[in-house]
């Protein structure tokens, strides 16, 4: 399993797999309701539910293709070739604008319906500096936020190159925030004021979004692994994974450990 995602209303849980299988289950019973098989030895790497009022989700494939799965009386699957044989590991959406991330590429697409996908250009990656000049540019997450630069700012995290703020309306870099760490993932609090960043060394760092100042850290060694992290409970807590199959819940203000839910695996 490469990714899990609940539908916006919590009715479904979607899971994608390296074997090219997408499973859509009932969140209440766990019953598998729908299955989609890509075939051809192509892996499924990312999932994104598209809207609150539609039973649709996007999936990024290992060969650069993005598919749109629609749940109605029966399943329909359409798709388009977004990247040239690069793994689509990151997806994000704002209105009709879909963003796809694959290795170093971040592309903007318009999807207004009728299965038409129109390219809106490529986002320029950040420039390298001395400390990362020999490192590959690798996108690790995509997020939308209301910032002081724009009410429609795209935040892009890069493994070696920090966080880029992209003004979608002006189609230019609004700000670049270099971090002296390897960035595995990021999440934005529900109020849009705070970032939590998963770094591959010491754990998780909390930043104020609009001035990019460090508010505090959660020490939780990741041992070089890309560990998922997310705000929960309205932003009052942080949910994190670990390299050893353990889930932890932290107080977002004090950064103290609240709970380690027990589960098999």
TrEMBL record:
This is Anaphase-promoting complex subunit 4 WD40 domain-containing protein. It comes from Pisolithus microcarpus 441. InterPro entries: Quinoprotein_ADH-like_sf, WD40/YVTN_repeat-like_dom_sf, WD_repeat-ST_regulator. Transmembrane segments: none annotated. GO terms for cellular component: GID complex. The keyword Translocase does not apply. GO terms for biological process: proteasome-mediated ubiquitin-dependent protein catabolic process. Keywords: Repeat, WD repeat.
């Amino acid at each position: 399993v490469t990714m899990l995602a609940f539908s916006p209303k919590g009715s479904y849980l979607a899971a994608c797999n390296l074997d090219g299988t997408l499973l859509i289950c009932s969140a209440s019973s766990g019953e598998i309701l729908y299955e989609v098989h890509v075939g051809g030895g192509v892996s499924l790497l990312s999932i994104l539910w598209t809207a609150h009022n539609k039973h649709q989700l996007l999936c990024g494939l290992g060969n650069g293709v993005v598919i749109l799965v629609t749940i109605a009386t029966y399943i329909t699957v359409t798709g388009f070739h977004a990247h040239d044989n690069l793994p689509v590991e990151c997806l994000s959406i704002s209105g009709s604008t879909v963003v796809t991330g694959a290795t170093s590429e971040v592309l903007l697409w318009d999807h207004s319906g009728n299965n038409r996908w129109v390219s809106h250009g490529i986002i320029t990656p950040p420039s390298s500096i001395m400390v990362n000049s020999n490192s590959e540019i690798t996108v690790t997450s995509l997020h939308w936020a209301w910032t002081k630069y724009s009410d429609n700012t795209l935040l892009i995290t890069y493994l070696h190159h920090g966080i880029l703020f992209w003004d979608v309306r002006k189609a230019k870099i609004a700000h670049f925030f270099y971090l002296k760490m390897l960035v595995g993932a990021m999440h934005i609090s529900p109020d849009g004021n705070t970032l939590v960043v998963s770094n591959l060394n010491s754990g998780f760092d909390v930043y104020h979004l609009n001035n990019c100042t460090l508010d505090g850290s959660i020490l939780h060694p990741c041992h070089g692994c890309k560990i998922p992290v997310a705000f929960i409970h309205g932003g009052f807590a942080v949910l994190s994974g670990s390299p050893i199959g353990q889930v932890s819940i932290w107080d977002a203000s004090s950064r103290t450990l609240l709970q380690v839910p027990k589960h098999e695996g």
